[in-house]
Specification:
The chain is of the alpha/beta class and 395 residues long. It folds into 3 domains: 140 residues, Response regulator (Rossmann fold, 3-Layer(aba) Sandwich), CATH 3.40.50; 174 residues, no CATH class; 42 residues, no CATH class. It is built from 14 helices and 12 strands. The strands form 4 sheets. It has a 5-stranded parallel beta sheet with strand order 2-1-3-4-5. Helix 6 runs antiparallel to helix 10. This is Response regulatory domain-containing protein. Keywords: Membrane, Transmembrane, Transmembrane helix.
């Protein structure tokens, strides 16, 4: 590897997100020194923790795990799940043997490297994995497309109601757009790719409610974490006690796209917090909090309905990483119904006064709607939705 090729000012340096599963501090430090400036690295300490993370969060571009951390068993488990089957997994080992090469290949591992990455071009391989997975996801989406026919009555209601609503609400939409611009820097509308009826992918619109630096802010929000115990530790300018008098870090690491001190990192690692939950989340703008609590941030989705991406009533379109989990015969029927702004599980949850529903319960209700939707059923859900607009939640 050519260490002189590191460019810490290039905005695309941190576009590749990897999870490094490792407990050995020295291995972690060496990896961060070598690749930290070019990768966005998240360090987890066990294969079990990694499995839990990828089940509940947006998957990374690749996972790097050593044989000493149970990498082979981890690889086997990942390949058994439909939504992680194509997730790139790189295995590392102190000693590369022909038997290990064969085992990794047989279990469909993506690559094998020595623990110190003394050979092979990791960055080049990771860039290839990103392109390959994007292509696979596109092909899978095409092959999984279901023929979902939207009845004339449903499309007529969608077009006429949203057309009238957009015309009536246009002054409010303009005022909200101006206030968002005045409140904080960034785009007015937030776009997110979603999977709707028949596995069709489209961009859903919302008014932006978060600051544009939300991803960077979360790294500095440990003191606001509702699960964090009070700490007495002091951190001065991100430097340890030895480096503070010198005014600059003598042992730099690149972690999660930022420069940090190696000693500070190792100290923080000992007091790691596993879960993050915030009350009065500071990433949300002042005006954004009002938009969320009033559900006004959802109004741009009227354009999605008017254009035919989704319907007023239906199964909520899912982010790509969630939709990837539901490609089996057991769940595919969930996408056989129209996508919608509100649906059966939302009003069922509120009607029963439940704060949370399991993923299985939501999917079952989505399948029930896909099988039974009708004009009468849609009207029932529509009028049950109104009380939900008064609901306010700030967590």
């Amino acid at each position: 590897m050519n260490e002189n090729a590191i460019n810490t000012t290039d905005k695309e340096t941190f576009s590749i997100k990897v999870i490094l599963v490792e407990k050995n501090d020295q291995v972690i430090v060496n990896f961060l020194k070598k690749f930290g400036s070019r990768l966005n690295v998240k360090v987890l300490e066990s294969a079990e923790e990694c499995l839990e993370f990828i089940r509940n969060a947006y998957p990374p571009d690749a996972i790097i795990i050593g044989t000493s951390m149970g990498g082979i068993d981890f690889l086997e488990k990942v390949r058994q799940e439909s939504w992680t089957r194509t997730l790139p997994v790189v295995i590392t080992s102190e000693q590369i043997t022909p038997a290990l090469v064969k085992e990794v290949a047989d279990k469909k591992g993506d690559d094998l490297y020595p623990t110190d990455f003394s050979s092979g071009e990791l960055i080049t391989r990771l860039e290839y994995f990103i392109k390959r997975r994007h292509y696979q996801a596109t092909q899978q989406a095409k092959s999984n497309i279901l023929e979902v026919k939207i009845p004339f009555w449903k499309r007529f209601i969608d077009v006429t109601s949203t057309g009238f609503a957009l015309l009536l609400l246009s002054p409010i939409l303009i005022i909200v757009a101006i206030l968002i611009k005045l409140d904080s820097k960034g785009p007015i509308v937030y776009k997110s790719r979603r999977v709707g009826a028949g596995y069709r992918i489209f961009e859903i619109y919302k008014f932006r409610t978060m600051r544009t630096d939300a991803d960077q802010m979360i790294k500095n929000m440990g003191s606001l974490n509702m699960y964090t115990k009070e700490k007495s530790e002091k951190k001065i300018s991100g430097l340890c006690e030895q480096c503070t008098p010198l005014g600059a870090c003598q042992q730099q690491l690149y972690l999660d796209g930022e420069i940090t001190c190696e000693k500070v990192y190792l100290n923080q690692k000992k007091e790691k917090v596993a879960f993050m939950k915030f009350q009065n989340d500071p990433r949300i703008t002042k005006f954004g909090g009002f938009l969320r609590n009033s559900s006004i941030d959802e109004l741009p989705q009227l354009f999605n309905i008017f254009m035919g991406d989704m319907s007023l009533i239906g199964n909520r379109p899912l982010p790509l990483y969630e939709a990837e989990k539901l490609t089996t015969d057991k769940y595919i029927e969930r996408f056989a119904g129209p996508g919608g702004l509100t649906g059966l599980w939302q009003v069922t949850k509120r009607g029963k006064g439940k704060k949370e529903m399991t993923e299985e319960e939501r999917i079952e209700l989505d399948i029930e709607y896909a099988r039974n939707f009708s004009f009468k059923f849609d009207m029932k859900i529509f009028f049950m939705t109104f009380p939900a607009l008064l609901q306010s939640e700030n967590v």
